[in-house]
Amino acid sequence: MEGVDHLAFERNKAQFDVDAMKIVWAGSSHALEVSDRMSRLVASDPAFRKDNRAMLGRKELFKNTLRKAAYALKRIIELRLSEEEASMLRSFVDEPAFTDLHWGMFVPAIKGQGTEEQLKKWLPLAQKMQIIGCYAQTELGHGSNVQGLETTVTFDPKTDEFVIHSPTLTSSKWWPGGLGKISTHAVVYGRLITDGQDHGVHGFIVQLRSLDDHLPLPGITVGDIGMKFGNGAYNTMDNGVLRFDHVRIPRDQMLMRVSRVTREGKYVQSNVPRQLVYGTMVYVRQTIVSDASTALSRAVCIATRYSAVRRQFGATGGNPESQVIDYKTQQARLFPLLASAYAFRFVGEWLKWLYTDVMTRLQANDFSTLPEAHACTAGLKSLTTSATSDGIEECRKLCGGHGYLCSSGLPELFAVYVPTCTYEGDNIVLLLQVARHLMKTISQLGSGKKPVGTVAYMGRVEQLMESRSDVQKAEDWLNPSAVLGAFEARAARKSVACAKNLSKFSNPEEGFLELSNDLVEAARAHCQLIVVSKFIDKLQQDIPGKGVKQLLEVLCSIYALFHLHKHLGDFLSTGCITSKQGSLANDQLRSLYSQVRPNAIGLVDAFNYTDHYLSSILGRYDGNVYPKLYEEAWKDPLNDSVIPDGFQEYIRPMLKQQLRNARL
Ligand SMILES: CCCCCCCCCC/C=C\CCCCC/C=C/C(=O)SCCNC(=O)CCNC(=O)[C@H](O)C(C)(C)COP(=O)(O)OP(=O)(O)OC[C@H]1O[C@@H](n2cnc3c(N)ncnc32)[C@H](O)[C@@H]1OP(=O)(O)O
Ligand SMILES: Cc1cc2nc3c(=O)[nH]c(=O)nc-3n(C[C@H](O)[C@H](O)[C@H](O)COP(=O)(O)OP(=O)(O)OC[C@H]3O[C@@H](n4cnc5c(N)ncnc54)[C@H](O)[C@@H]3O)c2cc1C
């Protein structure tokens, strides 16, 4: 029935103030107001329609993305939107596009690695979109190992220029989004060579295409790398290939904040650490953590609403069948994902703060927190994107057969989301970076250097090696200190075990390779501890609204106890808890799921997503699923005609032949 809220009876069950929770989710009343206004603006404009994406061929799909990007910019200018509003509007357009790389990587790379002079020259051009840029780091043969890049950038003192060259096939730039067809410029990473000396990888601003006719400049070969996973999905993006044949750029197009080359060809390093060349990745990894909460909450919103609509079995005495959301197994799969979405939101908020703090310190030449920022962004990017990718797929399964339809919104969400596990650093490679940070922290404990930030608990390592959980009954697990104690002890013990094993190797690098599986597990335990502790920290804040804080406490306990249950082997084998305490945690989880159940729809409504943004019939706000699914099926191009193309040509003769054979 059109106009009827089929989920109203669920909404009436909510025991908390949903509007207040919306503010907590958005981060502030102001953020909620802006995101609400921008999402409605996009949803109400037919130019931003996206329900036909899965049906479009690559060229049509891509052209459509270009149209939307140009139209979005036109609206941003017409409506005089602020930077914050414009960025929100672009995110609600919800279609991966070259603009993501322009705003998300090209501009930040210049901001982070350019000198004042370079910012003055390039930022206005980029900000007004008079040039369009991308981030060209990865090569066909080299992605994770940035130090292994082959592209050469050789200084020619005769002309005061750099000569960029792709010496081998494997040195071809490969993957950069926006590069394939659209970008006019790129920040290109290559090995800087002056006077025959290799100074390692640096970034350079390079013009790729003419601003007059958009043709590649001399010496440049550029194109798209081809179709990617899933129909529609990430194929709106022109990931590209790029080769240089001795292309010349002026010397002042080297990004020179970290180091520079003088007119005479002398290489001069500033007092800024070399790792700042990797700074854009740190920035993007931080944004990816917040995006994880957005992607996961979308999937959870769809699966939760549909689980309340869907009924199977249990019809007794003329009553309807049971809502699948009432099955304990459905709750045990769904509610930890709901809790994870909130957990990632808050750890994302904290990470943003950490990043901003590091940036402020960098301005004052304080580089002390850079290793912590690198480890946290790398580790949390890895943890949250892996969990979100798995979570989206779990949500598809939670929706049964209908989840497999494109109109559920879940296949496309998965296909667009899943490369986050690879881009901006493969998730295993990044966890190994965290492990290095942990091993370094442990190795420095004896020197009296006090660990700070997220590794501060390592300073209590002796106590943590001995500690025993004092949980005696299920409710004791609701105590944040019981949870924190168990997670800290587990993380510390796993790291210490690795450090002890590493010390048995005469060659530490060999040991690191040999023990890398254990190191990855230790890094994961450390990152889970960060998520749990930041959720607990969030709950120390004043959170207004009836029942809001109480419900967040429930979600926090679910996040922690679900992971304790999932990794029980870790907690038991390291002796942090007993098997009895493990089973009490499980008892407590069941009770927590029951507390979430009446509030489930309210908790996903608090994400404040429009139906346009969700683009899911199963996740419709009004729960009017079946009529809309039925209606949608008839829109499929296969249903344009009763008899499909190809039937007369192939199937009718086949049928006839088979009938003839049968008669013989
Ligand atoms: C239906 C529609 C749904 C829509 C859903 C929405 C979903 C969102 C979709 C959004 C769409 C589009 C936007 C996304 C665009 C994505 C584009 C992707 C871009 C990219 O991928 S760019 C390329 C990224 N590449 C990488 O990340 C490479 C990974 N490798 C590395 O980072 C490094 O090589 C390394 C860290 C692995 C190793 O480096 P190396 O130099 O060898 O280092 P080490 O020797 O190990 O370490 C040296 C010391 O340096 C420290 N270090 C290393 N990195 C950093 C750093 N970044 N910052 C600070 N310090 C660093 C390291 O710790 C060592 O320190 P130490 O000497 O030990 O003290
Ligand atoms: C959709 C998409 C968009 C992208 N956009 C851009 C972009 O805009 N700009 C850009 O420059 N790049 C981009 N990339 C490239 C991306 O950053 C790289 O693919 C990524 O960094 C992973 O590197 P790789 O492909 O070399 O993987 P590899 O390193 O080859 O990984 C292959 C396997 O080897 C394993 N492995 C590698 N090293 C180690 C190790 N030391 N120890 C243990 N295991 C290891 C990995 O875990 C993985 O299982 C994009 C990629 C994708 C998929």
From TrEMBL:
- Database matches in InterPro entries: ACOX_C_alpha1 (IPR055060), Acyl-CoA_ox_N (IPR029320), Acyl-CoA_Oxase/DH_mid-dom_sf (IPR046373), Acyl-CoA_oxidase (IPR012258), Acyl-CoA_oxidase_C (IPR002655), AcylCo_DH-like_C (IPR036250), AcylCoA_DH/ox_N_sf (IPR037069), AcylCoA_DH/oxidase_NM_dom_sf (IPR009100)
Instruction: Tell me which UniProt keywords the record has, alphabetically.
Output: FAD, Fatty acid metabolism, Flavoprotein, Lipid metabolism, Oxidoreductase, Peroxisome
How is this protein annotated for GO cellular component?
A: peroxisome
Instruction: Enumerate the residues binding FAD.
Output: 138, 177
An example GO biological process term is: lipid homeostasis
CC cofactor: FAD
Q: Domain Acyl-CoA oxidase C-alpha1, which positions?
A: 278-439
Record's subcellular location:
Peroxisome
The active site is formed by 424 (proton acceptor)
Q: Which family does it belong to?
A: Belongs to the acyl-CoA oxidase family.
Supply the name of the protein: Acyl-coenzyme A oxidase
